[in-house]
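Fold it.
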Amino acid sequence: MKKTDKLFELAKVDAALVISEKNRLYFTGFASTFGYLVLMRNNKNIFITDPRYYEMAQSLEKDGVSVVQISNGVSATDTLVDIFKKYGVKTVGYEDTELTVSEHITLSEDLGEFRLVPVGKDINYVRSFKTDTEIEYIKKAQSITDFAFSKILKIIKPGVTEREIAIELEYIMARNGAEGLAFDTIIASGVNSSKPHAHPTDKVIQLGDPVTMDFGARYHGYCSDMTRTVFVGEPSEELRKIYNVVLLAQKMGINNAYCGMTGKELDSFCREYIKSNGYEQYFTHGTGHSLGIDIHEIPTANARSTDTLTAKQFITCEPGIYIPGVGGVRIEDLLLIEQDGVIDLTTSDKNIIIL
């Protein structure tokens, strides 16, 4: 069970109610599709669940978490009300970044006697700083992803479809320790590669095609993320130029990254280099984002980001150029920010690969 001192330092509430599956997993390490986690000051925490998870959830008691099973005929919110009254709770933090409007209305009605305070941003901020254990999970996820890339290169050839590449890539990750996907795998070849988040299709790979692969593994609930663009046969002169511009732009970003810079500053190193080569209008997204339990977390790196990149946070560096009718290139590495420098966790070769 993670300590909640920092959360309560930020959120001026008596208790925080965690309903979302991912935030329950973050704080407890216990995966379930249902449950209510009540966080209180001094790390007094209560996990409320139903009979499907009650026996398994009792494993949390070793971390000092009280586990409560909802009684037959009693609603979860009735149980919450009893707990809040028992502990003298007046203000309750809720996940405004996760709840739907309908869920918020229901919560407001059922907990009407308590003052509800949004704390979603505070939770997200706390989550952005990774523990040593979380860092090791993400490193492991990234190593699985790098390994899969080295193996998929043997599969990519003329006649294979984007969908077949995606299936093989996901199978390799699963066979080598991935517990799931970090996100839906992106495979985009030929002219499809100008679409940054293209879905794999039955398009057949042809000679001269760029093949962009954006993929990641999930390990103990934590994500990795990387992108590589390779060529099947000799690329056109324009695509080769685009590749080199993206590669050097990414190196500009990584080589100049440091603890304490803003996301906008990191973005500018990549963006200015692409702009100086005449492709500014074709770099259509931000340079990077953090990750963890979610594939997109704070901090972010884009032209507007005021986020500060701080020790024990992650950031991706993934510039790209996408020209409709021609194709596109993206290269993405995962960076760990440390106090005295930045560690690139992505080990796969990113010099131009022609299969």
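Residues 132-152 form the longest helix (21 residues).
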